[in-house]
Amino acid sequence: RDPLVAFAGAIEVDDAATTEHFESLNSTNWQTMRWKPPPPPTPCGPRIGWRTEFRSMEVQLTDFENAAFTTFVVLLSRALLVFDLDLLIPLSKVDENMSRAHRLDAVGTQRFWFRADIVPDGSADEDPKCE
Description:
Elements: H1 20-29, E1 33-36, E2 51-54, H2 63-83, H3 91-101, H4 106-109
Antiparallel strand pairs: 1-2
């Protein structure tokens, strides 16, 4: 497929050797987070897997608020991993949420899309006493 964003000299690239097309698509779609592919392996170097980069708030008034946001993201990511929560929503709903969030007093006046059922399929019906 053709990339959505094309830079001069970066149209005909080997996707097996470079991530330019992926980075172009990734940088134009998600405003609050970015998927980071693993870097090319190096001999005797560490194996680094896929990473998720959370984009922080545009305005951080104090160091305390920056630390609080960072702590919240760490705790949130650990909860997602431990409880295997599914917070995926369609990208169109994310875009709609972002446009609503840019409005004045959005937290008090706007309604946002969230997933209603975040528990993985079948695990809500399991009884821990039966294991």
